[in-house]
Amino acid sequence: MTMARAAASRRSFLGHSYNLVGVVASLVILAWTLVAIFAPYIIPHPIGDIVDDDYFGPMRQGLWLGSDYLGRDMLSRVLMGARYTVGISLAAVSIACFSGVVLGMIAAVTGGWLDTCLSRFLDAMNSIPSKLFGLVVVAAVGSSIPVLILTLAVIYIPGSYRFARALAVNINTMDFMTVARVRGESTLYLVGSEILPNIIRPVLADFGLRFVFIVLLLSGLSFL
Fold first, then answer.
1. For residue 26, what pLDDT is reported?
2. Which of 37, 105, 217, 224 could join 191 in a cystine, given CB atoms 3.0 to 4.6 angstroms apart?
3. Which residues are CB-neighbours of 88 under 8 A, at least 6 positions away?
């Protein structure tokens, strides 16, 4: 039944099959990305202007999401907030996933003391509560955008590393990896040409999940 539903959810366009759910999700992501890019040009009111005398005013024409406790337009503030939330989260997850995946693949291929040291160090980092780590860093050095990006990236590098390493270890035991080693291929070749193409799909799925987690963590930190 599950396979039948999965097959039914796939469509064909110009000879290429696609998943309807994936297309809808991609359109949602694209829409919010465009909002983040063009937010300053599409907001109906400046985010700091008081445009309503009725605090917490209801939705009406000109104030499509109402007003906040100071009488500012909520729609404008949501659109501008998306600009920072999406931008910071995307930058942080890109750094975290790139660093974690590269380190995980290198550790899986190399093994030995490098694998042990990286795994134990990142396990120790992973044991620190994320919100506590973020609050300590922000309290120590401030809450500028570069600091937030690097802090969020450091928090999620260990998880990305463990995920990529687990995938790479399985690939590393396969016959084509042994053949590549016998040919005398370098570690860089093994990582980039043999392992990465075989783990890229789950890595991209993990990228999306970590993006959501970073958005949630960033939202939580903003309230603390």
1. 80
2. 105
3. 145, 148, 149, 152, 218
Cβ atoms within 10 A of the Cβ of 125, count?
A: 15
What tokens appear for 118 in the block? 């990286």
pLDDT at 87: 87
Q: Which amino acid is at 12?
A: S
Longest dimension (CA), the chain: 76
The rounded distance, in Å, linking the Cα atoms of 176 and 170 is 12
Which residues make Cβ contacts (< 8 Å) with residue 45, sequence separation at least 6? 51, 72, 73, 76
Of 78, 88, 74, the C-alpha closest to 156 is 88
The CA distance from 157 to 94, in Å, is 10
Q: Return all residues near 32 (Cβ < 8 A) that are at least 6 apart.
A: 82, 86
Q: Is 109 helix (H, G, I), strand (E, B) or coil?
A: helix
Residues of the chain whose pLDDT is less than 50? Answer: 1, 3, 8
Residue 71, Cβ neighbours under 10 Å: how many?
A: 16
pLDDT of residue 1: 44
Which pLDDT score is estimated for 178? Answer: 86
Number of C-alpha atoms within 13 angstroms, CB side, residue 53?
A: 0
CATH 3.40.50.970 applies to domain 86-224: no
On whether the CB atoms of residues 164 and 104 are closer than 8 A, the answer is yes
Do residues 47 and 25 lie in contact, with contact meaning Cβ atoms separated by under 8 Å? no
On the 0-12 / 13-18 / 19+ scale of CB atoms within 10 A, 135 is middle
